[in-house]
Predict the 3D structure of the following.
Amino acid sequence: MTRTLDECRALERSGDSAAAYQHYIDGDFIEDAARLLVGRSRGLDAAELLLAWVARQTPPTGERARACGREAARLFEQHGRGPRALSVLAWLQDSEALTALAVRLGETDHAFEAGCALARHGDPTRAPASLLRVPRGDPRYAAAALETVRALARGAPLTMNIDRWLADFIRRGPGSDAEADAFYGLAGVYAAAGFPENADEVLGRLLVTRPGYRDAAALKEQMLADALGGAAVLARVVAEDSAFAEAAGALGRPPSDALVASSTLERSATEEVGGATPVLDADGGATTVVKNAPLPGSVAAAAASAPAVLAFSPGMLVADRFRVVDVLGKGGMSTVYRVVDVELNESMALKLFTQPVNEEAVERFKQEIRLARQLVHENVIRMYDIGFAAGARFLTMELLVGEDMHAKMVRGLSLRDGALLLAQACAGLDAAHRLGVVHRDVKPENLFVTTDNVLKVMDFGIATHTKNNGLTLAGMVVGTPEYMAPEQAHGHMRVAHSADLYSLGVMLYALATGQLPFRHAELVPLLMMHVQQAPEPPRRLNPACPVEFEQLILELLAKRAEQRPASARVVEDRLKRLVQRGVLG
């Protein structure tokens, strides 16, 4: 005989729990039956009971069935069966409850299951937070990476942490059809996010194991063509930089004092600088301020038509912390001020971006700050923080007094003095390389020499990390063309620390000969010279260049990265030994 719910409960209160339980089942009072089991410390049995009841419902999506299913999931979670709870909520297609549970489990040993559930059935944008907790050495790493890529394809945002975590998965290449599909999709994610270099690498790995996979080869070729188009944009930037440099009378690259006779004219031009004050350049490099230098026509016209920009006045307090002292330098995009941190009573430089800064640029600034906080070395400039004031972004950094390496080379450096300074650059770069960081834009303008003759490596804004895929600017060949390693000139290829060594080789070549190894008025031919053409041996241009010095320079300028010296530390040691032995005078 079927009893009413009140009769069943009365029977339970009388102490006959077994009879009450059976009547609950017979009367379809499943919630009370489960409650009774929970009261007897049989929570897992209660969860299984509820789940079995839900499975018998047609369809199992009514409000009562969903409530019973959620209660079963809660009991499974409560008793340490998180993955089972996730499967229940996935079966119920209860995305909201699944997401909430998965986020909780993402902080536990069940992060993998939580992330998979989010990627497949819940909020995919939250899946990577759980999946990234799976160590790269875990047997489930490949599966977690696969689910992460699927989450990215479903709208999860691509971040530097995800990019770094996926590095091992990408490096290994696809090992199954599912992974091949994921690689193809990941290339699309990178391309859509504006990171073609990463997309190119992913497609390259895919084509190694699946040469004919869909249109991957054609996509890869198209990306290379787009990169050369982006190079034209870079050419315009380089031309504008050159125009400003010419305005400052600082384009000459005289040789060392072994070639004094041929550099007299260039020296006389630079002597007009007179009593100019050396400061940190507003756009990331360092220069000597030249009084009354005429602007090239195109630059002058642009300056005349430019709108008024944000400026700080001496005495102003920026962000309630930085007291403005004076202006150190101005550029097209920013102004650098000498400020005092009133909390620390410390002088520093503040770089104010006077033009709008997009989020991609902000991320790059943040990257430079993150690198700087890890990279503490005497030969690397210290970056402090990024801030926001008066509607504009700013950076704070170490205040330097002196001039950049370019200015020193313009005036003429002895081989000995130049080698000792560049040995310091090697020391700073070696510290970065040991952290897995590649500078990618090593050039004289990014090496600052203080009045104490201490060299500082600056501007890690386009640095990449060798342990990840290094998110890079869309369609751009990143670096400065005259100093760019062949692998950088290619546009999409990954670069390692050896690219920085190549750039050092270019500087040593200029120190020894008074000219760059490769010069061309147009960008693309210049890049191809780095890739294909052997440099003129330094001793043909300067017979006074020591043989051992020439040998080091040519090793650094090797086309193949593996043929260059093993590290910046090795180059530093060789330069110091040449000086100590008197080879460089």
Q: What stands out?
A: The radius of gyration is 32 Å.
